[in-house]
């Protein structure tokens, strides 16, 4: 479904992502691990079109179409939706307005309403806050809103960038359950996590990113047993 | 208390500063730049309404709309052919500053720099007992109310308004969900420039028209933005309101150096509230 072939991303002279390849099939749940600055966000932004991958610096395919160089909106309309790092909510818009922006590209009024109902069923706390500004929400609620906003786009593939960051263990557990639920509903997931244990527990396939390069990949059950992974990312 | 006429005059000025400031802030919130040539769009708006009513016999209200439409187009061209071709806020700023002289020069060549006057379109005075308002000034006030209400409606109750607010707050996330910043930039540039031109047009019957009349409203609009807090639309409106009154009331008490006193007061306001009345404090 999604295929990255030897992509490079440079900020100025410095390469943040080097010769990166990745492949995600429909229905997969993939996690990307990596330390601070490894290039995880850069990779997601390359997929979403926020940073451009030049024609001669690799290829990105989605459902057989080559999408590098496309505008973010056009990529989103294909069904790849990113839930960005740090949530990036619209602070002065209400919860409801934030959700509506998620559905910005859709024209089917009924479908939008249905997605809104589904999102509110998944995150009941948001129901009472529909008219509150998003900056008034707690950290956990904000993360839920960020995910709900992404779901409003009716994604086929969701790219989640460190959704657990800054959340208490209890909320993180709830979030994990929700992410599993979204996957069960049939959404293909790419989950970037610094909390490696969480990513490896949830996903079925994992990639390890080091200094912009893919250093290791495999089934998460194998990665959990891998000595290098244990030492570097699981702290054992 | 200064006489009521002065307050009415102040309110009329407020209306213009508000409309100008509002448009500039709207553009700023999406493009991240101040369009320094906003005042010259005001001036051109006045000329368009002058010629369309005197030479072409077009009715005044249609002339105002025409001014708005033409200058919206010019604004979009400025965005596409000047702002988009230059990298860096500073250089874009310099380019729009240069446009002040380009547009004033062009207007001087075309229309000469002589004062012209448009005859009062709405003669007569509304007598309210304590105060009399000329219909022409009432037109300015009503026009501003309509414009502000329309802008409020567009921003808060339409899809494009939601998109504008979203991009202003969080451009990256907005683009992730398919909002085109590029398209919105053109729209807000069109709206902002149209507002400036229509402000110039509605004022045309009240003051002499020449190629340099855009300077004062532009400076006042900028001051209004600074007092209100850069980036805040509410701030632009309140700042414009305050400035219009201050400007005419101070001028009433001291005709010499009234601008010096005005700027002094503004500096005082900013000393107390550096971020402006509605600006987020820079923590
Ligand atoms: N806009 C930018 N301009 C210049 N350099 C950048 C930019 N964004 C990221 N970088 C650099 O690129 C490298 C990869 O950053 P990236 O944000 O992709 O890492 P990450 O794996 O997501 O890290 P984190 O876990 O901290 O989110 C880092 O060295 C970072 O400093
Ligand atoms: Mg990151």
Major beta sheet of chain B, specifics? 2 strands, antiparallel
At the first level of CATH, the class of the largest domain in chain A is: Alpha Beta
Write the CATH fold name of the largest domain in chain A. Rossmann fold
Q: Give me the secondary-structure category of chain A.
A: alpha/beta
**Could you list the spans of chain A in which at least 5 consecutive residues all have pLDDT below 50?**
none
Q: How many H/I helical runs of chain A?
A: 9
CATH architecture of the largest domain in chain A: 3-Layer(aba) Sandwich
**Helical content of chain B, roughly?**
over 70%
Give the beta-strand count of chain B. 2
Low-confidence stretches of chain B: none
Count of helical stretches of chain B = 11
Please tell me how large the radius of gyration of chain A is.
17 Å
Principal-axes geometry of chain A comes out as globular
- The shape of chain B, in one word, is globular
- Distance from N terminus to C terminus of chain B (CA atoms, Å) equals 39 Å
Oligomer: heterodimer
Number of domains of chain A: 2
Which ligands are bound? adenosine-5'-triphosphate, magnesium ion
CATH homologous superfamily descriptor of the largest domain in chain A:
P-loop containing nucleotide triphosphate hydrolases
Q: Biggest chain pair contact, residues each?
A: A-B, 25 and 16 residues
Strand content of chain B: under 5%
């Amino acid at each position: 479904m999604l295929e990255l072939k030897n992509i490079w991303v440079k900020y100025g002279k410095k390469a943040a992502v080097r010769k990166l390849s990745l492949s995600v099939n429909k229905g997969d749940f993939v996690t990307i691990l990596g330390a601070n600055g490894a290039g995880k966000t850069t990779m997601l932004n390359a997929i979403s079109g926020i940073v451009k991958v030049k024609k001669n610096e690799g290829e990105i395919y989605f459902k057989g179409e080559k999408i590098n160089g496309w505008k973010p909106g056009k990529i989103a309309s294909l069904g790849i939706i990113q839930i960005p790092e740090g949530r990036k909510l619209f602070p002065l818009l209400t919860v409801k307005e934030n959700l509506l922006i998620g559905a910005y590209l859709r024209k089917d009024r009924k479908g939008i309403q249905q997605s809104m109902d589904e999102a509110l069923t998944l995150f009941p706390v948001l129901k009472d806050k529909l008219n509150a500004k998003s900056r008034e929400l707690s950290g956990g609620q904000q993360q839920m809103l960020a995910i709900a906003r992404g779901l409003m786009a009716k994604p086929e593939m969701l790219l989640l960038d460190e959704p657990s960051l800054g959340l208490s263990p209890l909320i993180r557990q709830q979030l994990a359950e929700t992410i599993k639920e979204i996957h069960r509903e049939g959404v293909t997931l790419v989950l970037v996590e610094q909390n490696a244990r969480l990513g490896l527990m949830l996903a079925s396939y994992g990639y390890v990113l080091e200094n912009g390069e893919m250093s290791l990949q495999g089934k998460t059950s194998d990665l959990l047993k891998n000595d290098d992974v244990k030492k570097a990312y699981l702290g054992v | 208390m200064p006489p009521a006429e002065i307050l009415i005059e102040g309110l009329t000025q407020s209306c213009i500063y508000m409309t100008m400031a509002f448009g500039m802030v709207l553009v700023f919130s999406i493009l991240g730049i101040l369009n320094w040539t906003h005042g010259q769009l005001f001036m051109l708006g006045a000329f368009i309404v002058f010629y369309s009513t005197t030479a072409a016999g077009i009715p005044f209200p249609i002339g105002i709309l025409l001014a708005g439409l033409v200058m919206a187009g010019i604004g979009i061209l400025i965005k596409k052919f000047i702002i988009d071709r230059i990298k860096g806020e500073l250089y874009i700023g310099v380019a729009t500053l240069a446009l002040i002289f380009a547009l004033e020069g062009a207007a001087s060549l075309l229309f000469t720099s002589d004062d012209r006057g448009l005859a009062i379109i709405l003669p007569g005075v509304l007598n309210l007992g304590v105060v009399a308002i000329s219909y022409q000034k009432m037109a300015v006030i009503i026009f501003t109310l309509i414009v502000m209400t329309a802008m409020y409606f567009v921003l808060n109750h339409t899809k494009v308004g939601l998109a504008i607010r979203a991009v202003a707050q969080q451009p990256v996330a907005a683009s992730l969900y398919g909002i085109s910043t590029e398209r919105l930039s053109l729209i807000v540039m069109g709206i902002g420039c149209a507002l400036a031109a229509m402000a110039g047009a509605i004022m045309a019957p009240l003051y002499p028209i020449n190629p340099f009349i855009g300077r004062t409203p532009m400076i006042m609009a900028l001051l209004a933005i600074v007092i209100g807090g850069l980036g805040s639309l509410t701030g632009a409106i309140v700042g414009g309101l305050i400035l219009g009154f201050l400007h005419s009331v101070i001028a009433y008490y001291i005709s010499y150096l009234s601008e010096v006193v005005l700027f002094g007061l503004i500096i005082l306001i900013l000393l107390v509230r550096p971020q402006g009345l509605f600006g987020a404090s820079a923590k």
